[in-house]
Amino acid sequence: MRIFVAGASGVIGRLLIPLLVKEGHEVFGMTHNTASKGLIQEIGATPVVVDVFDRDAVISAFREVRPEIVIHQLTSLSKYNLEDNAKIRNLGTRNLVDASRTVGVKRMIAQSISWAYEPDSYPATEESLLDVKAPEPRKTTIDGAVALENAVSEMEEFVILRFGMLYGPSTWYDPSGMIAEKVRNQEMKATDGIMSFLHIADAARATLAALEWPNGAVNIVDDEPVPGTVWLPYYASLIGAPEPKVQASSNRGERGASNAKARQEYGWEPIFPTWYDGFRASLSSSNNIKK
After folding, report:
1. How deeply is 140 buried, as exposed, middle or buried, from its count of CB atoms within 10 A (0-12, 13-18, 19+)?
2. 63 phi/psi in degrees, rounded to 5
3. Pfam families from the entry (predicted)?
């Protein structure tokens, strides 16, 4: 199949494209940065340079490529800019959906988030309500996720992957990433807030599997939602950071999510079933992950 990957040079796109190529698909990788063309070619895709916010340019690119499936992995997370990321989820997704429908694409697979659910005391399932009444600054993130999911749901066929907090090479949790820096500087406290994690290799493999999944949203997270009082001290020890201070609190929506649907109904099995397995492998073995 002809598959168009938006966000081809991102942390997931770089792992996903080789998987798609190995399966025999013809892949086109979208980027807004000309400097990423070489990387996209190296991993097996045809680069397409286009600004996702330029609606006419996106439609023109789709008319030229004529994809059969669109995979939306676009984010703006490297600088932790919530407004930019929400803009991509809102306007960027709108342009991708409109371009897809203009040229007759039936199926779209899109990245969303598993921490968008409203507060509760148990891990969220796909039937749990999204936190649409959240105050700012969380509201910006939730509104972006809702806009993305609503737009993608207009497609004839669609899968919305609600990823856990991504970790692995080149993510915030990489030893040279933003979270690592904050932990080394003791700017993060170990709280009671519950997190569901996901290694980027498992995110890529789930996206590949979603080519065959039925319509709807599905949580793609590991098996073990975990409080900050447990994961953060272990993470700090792996990166050689000081023991984090403990604070008895949590933020709105920190409840974790259940992957029962992905595992039991779709047969998805993560390489790293728990954050502990993944942290130990990715942080203590030079980030060499077998895919």
Report:
1. middle
2. -65, -35
3. Epimerase
Residue located via tokens 């979603």: 210
Pick the closest to residue 215 from 283, 257, 152, 267 (CA basis).
152
pLDDT at site 289:
39
Which residues, 6 or more positions from 63, have their beta carbon under 8 angstroms from its beta carbon? 102, 103
DSSP 159-200: EEEEE-EEESTTSTTSTTSHHHHHHHTT---B-S-EE-EEEH
Percent of the chain with pLDDT over 90: 93
Which helix (H) or strand (E) is 60 found in, with range? Answer: helix 55-65
Amino acid letter for position 77: L
Predicted local distance difference test score (pLDDT) of residue 284: 74
How far apart CA 275 and CA 225 sit, in angstroms, is 8
| Cα–Cα dist 67/174, whole Å | 33
SS3 of 7, please? coil
Q: Is the model's pLDDT at 286 over the cut of 60? A: no
Q: Are strands 194-195 and 226-227 parallel, antiparallel or unpaired?
A: antiparallel
CA 39 to chain centre: 20
Terminal Cα distance for the chain, rounded: 22
Mean pLDDT across the stretch 58-82? Answer: 89
Inter-helix orientation angle 138-152/93-103, to 10°: 0
